[in-house]
Amino acid sequence: MSRILVVGLGYIGLPTAAMFAASGHTVYGFDVSQRVIETLKRREIHIEEPGLLGLVREGLDAGRFIPTDKAVEADVIIICVPSPHDEKTKRADLEYVEKATRSVVPILRRGNLVVLESTVPAGTTDKVMLPILEESGLKAGTDFLTAHCPETVLPGHMIHEMAHNHRIIGGSTPEATEAARKLYGSFVNATMITTDATTAEFVKLIENAYRDVNIAFANEVALLSHELGIDSREAIRIANHHPRVKIHQPGPGVGGHCIPVDPWFLVQDTKAGKLVRTARAVNDGMPEHVATLAKSLINGVTKPKFALLGLAYKGNVDDIRESPTFHLIDALKRQVPGCEIVVHDPHVAKAPIPLASADDALTGADCVILVTDHRAFADLESKHAATLVRSKFLVDTRGILNAGKWRDAGFRVAMV
Ligand code: SAJ
Fold first, then answer.
1. Residues 6+ apart with CB under 8 A from 42
2. pLDDT digit string (tens) for 254-264?
3. Alpha-carbon distance 305 to 102, whole Å?
4. Which residues contact 229 (CB under 8 A, 6 or more apart)?
5. In angstroms, what is the span from residue 161 Cα to ligand 1's centroid?
6. Residue 11: CB within 6 Å of ligand 1?
7. For this structure, is 339 an active site residue?
8. Which of 46, 68, 133, 308 has CA 20 to 30 A from 325's CA?
9. Which residue out of 118, 157, 207, 208 has the highest number of ligand 1 atoms within 8 Å of its CB and is therefore the one to mutate?
10. Cβ-based neighbour number of residue 350 at 10 Å
11. Whole-prediction pTM
């Protein structure tokens, strides 16, 4: 069993730390946020993820998970900090990765394995992390080992997926690959695929770019269907009967911390990448399309109120990072000056914008826009909603509402 230091206790770091603790290692969870450390010490967690709280509490109670506000010596160091993109240049912002790496330089010692889990442009482990670690005076490959082991878990299913998804293990040297493979073998109950660090980084990016391109195709189908007066979801459902066709679902745009960001990392320094860039543009254009759709529905209503259902970037999670709802709000404000916008999300407790209850959002609304595919929204009572709204217009961007019922309740329904 090893002593493991996990740097960064966010959406990936905390479940990773909890999984290693559950498999018998002693895990120090280091975060620069005092709030995060205090919350954990109170036996609470700062993110919503099914099964995570129980796992964290087990680790705390067994003394195998120890939250700390400073880096401590360990056998293994795992860096799980955010790697956002610069809004303007779309390039990876490696500030947190560099800072986290610097924070472990003083405690780095001979025999350490340092794993970078953050999603980064191909080459970052070897060309950015490794040279910073060598500022310790220790030599990579001989004194310490480095690897990139990206995660592929879906928020909402993390605990299961961490154990059951295949895992890519990319060492900077074959020895590092082997050390990392052994380490992750303590909880990964699936195939571990070994490669070098740079290929591992590239693979993570092409996986998410693949999904972005596929979603962009679904969104393009929706845009074409709209022009041609066809129901895109019915068309996709029929097309998907073909054994080699599996079209994704159109929606209000693509959110989350990965899919709208990672494709940019892939093409940030390349000449090739036209399809990847175009897919980004198609998906980024969806909030504008939804706003146009809503505007055309409410045509003529003065000072309209929009009730937006959903701030989370996808269904049944509390994660609002890069949520299309934020872009939709901007698009509505631009296209319908003077409108009122009220947002309701039963999963989100903390947000940079005010949130309302379902009834408050619906009361006096002129257009309801379903943005997030939360299960709770599928059960919304159309008849009750009809008693609250002022004008009965509805845009379902996810195709999860029973359009027939809403039409029966008097709503004019548009779908993406
Ligand atoms: N979406 C659609 N239509 C679809 C599927 C998704 O509009 O048919 C939207 C979602 O609503 C959401 C966005 O796309 O706004 C992204 O959601 P997602 O479920 O595709 O992905 P994430 O960001 O939650 O997780 C992805 C996953 N990657 C892939 O599926 C290739 C996950 O496995 C990765 O671990 C994660 O990115 C990550 O951390 O990189």
1. none
2. 999 899 999 99
3. 49
4. none
5. 14
6. no
7. no
8. 46
9. 208
10. 8
11. 0.93
